[in-house]
# Entry
Amino acid sequence: MEVKIGVQFAPRELVLESTQSPDEIASAVDKAVTSEQGTLSLVDERGRRIIVPIDKLAYVEIAEAASRGVGFTAG
# Structure
């Protein structure tokens, strides 16, 4: 899954590839927003942890990872 996280006052969004399902990611976002913890923590497919303070969270977009073509085409 491709996850895009918008952070307030940041010029670019955070983009990560996750092995979690869309429901698991949505659940993690819901839990973070309603908890006292104050952060959203997700792990990408390489094991890197991304932590975003909830008070700076603008949006979370969950989508299928876009497949990229390999090679060249003659036009």
